[in-house]
Amino acid sequence: MKNAVFSVANLIKIFWALTMLTLPITSFRWFPFLGESTLVRPLALLPLVFLFPLLLIQFWKKEIKLQIPNAFMALGMFVLFVIVSASIGALINPIPLRGQPYDGRAIRALVTLFIGIAFFVSAVWMNKNEEDLKFTVKWIFVGLIITIAWSGLQAVTFYTDIFDRETITKLQLSFSMRELVRTNRISGLAYEPAWLAGQLATMFIPFLFASILTSYHITKFKWLESVLLVLSLIVALGTFSRGGLLTIVASAGLTFLFLGRDVIKSVWNWFINGFRKRKIDIVFRFGIIAVIFALLFGVIAFLGQREIFSNLWQADAETLDEFIVEINAGSRGAYSSAGYAVFENYPITGVGLGASGFTMYQNLPDWSLTVLPEIARQLSPESRLYPNPKNLYIRLLAETGIIGFFLFLAFQFHVLGDMLSLLKQNQTWTRFAVIAGVFAWLAVTFYNFTQDSFTTPNIWLVSGIMVGLSTNLFKENS
Predict the structure, then answer these.
(1) What's the pLDDT at 44?
(2) Helix/strand/coil for 176
(3) Which H or E run contains 155?
(4) CA angle 383, 172, 450 (to 5 degrees)
(5) 27 in helix, strand or coil?
(6) Among 389, 285, 275, which Cα is nearest to 331's?
(7) What pLDDT, on the 0 to 100 scale, is given for residue 25?
(8) What is the CA radius of gyration of the chain?
(9) Which residues contact 405 (CB under 8 A, 6 or more apart)?
(10) CA-CA distances (angstroms) from residue 274 to 234, 260, 269, 282, 283?
(11) What's the mean pLDDT in 423-437?
């Protein structure tokens, strides 16, 4: 009996490790039962499918105890209202769009929501203490190392003749729905560069940043996190994702401001005291300032080579609409505007999860109909695409109304409260967890302005890890 228990426990760890390892692959080509139009296909869902039954078996046999955190209550209220709004949407019963009826879109949307919740719940149950956290983050780092290696291979293919582009493209298509990006932007193992930048901002860099700030190391190699952080930032630059880079900078800055004041104070004291010592110390500090400014100038110059960045300060526009179009954000702005118009028509309960696209076309702003080729292709009778708001918050407003929107925010702030409660433990590893959690929470908050899918694992994962740690530590101390 003990051997059987040991075997099941090992299988649980194996499947959880595989889940963490495969997180970077977001659009797995060979995912079963999905059509070509489904782009969000996290490979990590496959090992998760095997993990859940094993957890439930051990729970049923009373070999493990699965805590029910208070965050589940907040999440449950949101889910219940989503089901209510979907029922109301069925009463609205919009005209099918391009062969897609309301019930099909609603069922699909609910499935994607439950997939995302599955990642959250599994992260809660698989992270109870410091040992579990280390195990999880180790395998996240393994996935990051593979991502960096594949991203490096892409960069070498783009900018040198060492590898044949066609060969690398075939390798990419062997697991992904998309070939290498033709504009020479690094996409790693993700579907597109923006998705890779989102992964780095919401899942990988938070743990690396926290390790540097707290000197807490997951492995015995104390230099590993520093090296991985530098390489991750280089890969992030290679994505040329404006939203991703802004998310990383903003999240790091705010986290450093809120939780790194002791570090700021010690660095400042070290810097100032150097001017009271030998001349070589003064020269060294001026050298540091020069290096920082040189790096900033180099990054700006590097990014400025791309039109999507240079247009930010070179755009010749007289109105906000023209500026949005000039900086290549016109389509995203048009979809968001149309989604908000749907919310204005149904402000209380929305039109039902997944149903905003049925009325978005008639709500597109006038300026988008003549100057945006992407919108023109979408409006073509030959197009089979189904529109979406491209912004999770606007999607929530349009599809679940103001009630669903605030219930989702209530859940998110409940998660943030659970993260911050770990500070009461006053241990190095819990401080590491809090800094990583807050960084990821902020990053997800910003990232959701540029994506609208519930299936994306990285918007759920770190939150689930922190809720699991907080819940179990609270139970132990109560």
Answers:
(1) 94
(2) strand
(3) helix 130-159
(4) 55
(5) strand
(6) 389
(7) 94
(8) 24
(9) 393, 396, 397
(10) 31, 21, 8, 6, 9
(11) 93
Report the pLDDT averaged over residues 330-355.
Answer: 91
Please report which confidence band the pLDDT of residue 208 belongs to, taking 50, 70 and 90 as the band edges.
very high
For residue 318, tell me if it sits in a domain. no
Which of the pair, 267 or 399, is modelled with greater confidence?
A: 399
CB 402 within 8 A of CB 348: yes
Q: How far apart are CA 386 and CA 401, in angstroms?
A: 20
pLDDT tens for residues 152-177? 999 999 988 888 889 999 999 999 98
Per-residue DSSP letters for 302-354? HHHTSHHHHHHHH---SSHHHHHHHTT-HHHHHHHHHHHHHHHHSTTT-S-TT
| Amino acid in position 239 | T
**Please, what is the average pLDDT of the chain?**
88
Residue 348 lies in a domain: no
CB 397 within 8 A of CB 350: yes
pTM of the entire predicted model: 0.92
Tell me which residue range forms the domain holding 66.
Answer: 2-312+390-477
- Residue 76 included in any domain: yes
User: Which of 465, 424, 423, 458 lies closest to 444 in space, CA to CA?
Assistant: 458
Using alpha carbons only, give the angle 201, 152, 221 rounded to the nearest 5 degrees: 70
Q: To which residue do tokens 């609409």 refer?
A: 321
pLDDT > 80? residue 331: yes
For residue 461, what pLDDT is reported?
95
Query: At how many degrees (to 10) do helices 71-92 and 392-421 cross?
Result: 170
- The C-alpha atoms of residue 240 and residue 262 are separated, in whole angstroms, by 33
Distance, CA of 391 to CA of 380 (rounded, Å): 23
Other CB atoms within a 10 A radius of the CB of residue 10 amount to 10
Q: Distances in Å between the alpha carbon of 392 and those of 141, 151, 398, 448?
A: 27, 27, 10, 5
Q: Count up the domains in the chain and report the number.
A: 1
215-221: average pLDDT: 90
- pLDDT band for 1, please (50, 70, 90 cuts): very low
| For range 6-20, the mean pLDDT | 88
Strand residues in 71-139 grouped as ranges (E): none
Average pLDDT over residues 454-473: 93
Find the helix or strand (DSSP H, E) in which 392 lies. helix 392-421
In a domain, 109, yes or no: yes
Burial tier of 279 (Cβ tally within 10 Å: 0-12, 13-18, 19+): exposed
pLDDT beyond 60 at 389:
yes
